Amino acid sequence: MIKAPTVLMIGGGRRGIGKTALTCALLGRFAVQHEITAVKVTAIDQVNRTHHPGPAETPAGAPGDACPTPYRITEEIDCGGDKDTARMLACGAARALWLQVPEAHLQEGIAALLERLGPQTISV
Question: Which tens digit of pLDDT belongs to each residue from 12-25?
Answer without folding.
Answer: 888 899 999 999 99
